[in-house]
């Protein structure tokens, strides 16, 4: 039952537990207890709301920053990742494969603010070798949700 609960919560964290119980052919108490246990075990780490800030009229800049670092003996990438994720501007930090080691996502008010963060804080860390910043210009799909309106069919209506 855990995997089924997680699948539903991943796409709709606001689902009513009674409704979820019906979908799972279970009772609400069992589902609520299972969710509470998964929260306690940190399987469920949090609940988030996906917001289209452009539609809300809020100026916001999102950036993906690739970071090459020198791993530290006996600690690998963990120590530098921790230093980076403790900055309040940082939304996420991922260890990745490829030519860079870490992928940092950042939310800022302007391109200048993000650039300042990268040059003044991120690039100056001892273990950081290099960075490459990519600004998100438009979101088409985020966390499984399509962010752009779907186009109506462009086919011409054929009438007899």
TrEMBL record:
GO biological process: response to amino acid
One Gene Ontology molecular-function label: sequence-specific DNA binding
Coiled-coil regions listed: none
SMART domains: HTH_ASNC (SM00344)
Gene3D superfamilies: 3.30.70.920, Winged helix-like DNA-binding domain superfamily/Winged helix DNA-binding domain (1.10.10.10)
SUPFAM superfamilies linked to this entry: Dimeric alpha+beta barrel, Winged helix' DNA-binding domain
Pfam family, one: AsnC_trans_reg
GO CC aspect terms: cytosol
Tree of life domain: Bacteria
Transcription regulator AsnC/Lrp ligand binding domain boundaries: 65-138
InterPro entries for this protein: Dimeric_a/b-barrel, Tscrpt_reg_AsnC-like, Tscrpt_reg_AsnC/Lrp_C, WH-like_DNA-bd_sf, WH_DNA-bd_sf
Name of the protein described by the UniProt record: AsnC family transcriptional regulator
Organism: Mediterraneibacter butyricigenes
